[in-house]
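::Encoded backbone::
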Amino acid sequence: MLTEFGKILIFIILAIVFVIITLFINKLIRPNRPTFEKQKVYECGENPEGSPWVKFNIRFYVVALIFLIFDVEVVLLFPWALTYKEFGVYGFLVGIIFLIILGLGMAYEWRKGDLEWARPEPKPPKLDEILKPEKQN
């Protein structure tokens, strides 16, 4: 008699064996005709130019992470919108608190300037402005 974990283990083993067998059969029957064009790195149809070690602006990653964070949080609003009436006032208040926290996070990111694509260059204070004596009247 197998336990539930035993059934899961057998399923995982069968899945791994299936993938290995499929890849092996694919290697046997596929045509192998390498050409110069096929060996080149695929760049969405464009010919690759320059070094692949180009430094990307960190803004791409920051914007992507902010999008993912808020996108996942907004997805959580759908189940709440469908079921908040079942939980009464408590369910409604929990959802409103969630929306307030989400709004505060968005306001923080906006205020910080992370939602702007081109951030203004910071102006460091100049030493002569700091050491300049104030005008005496």
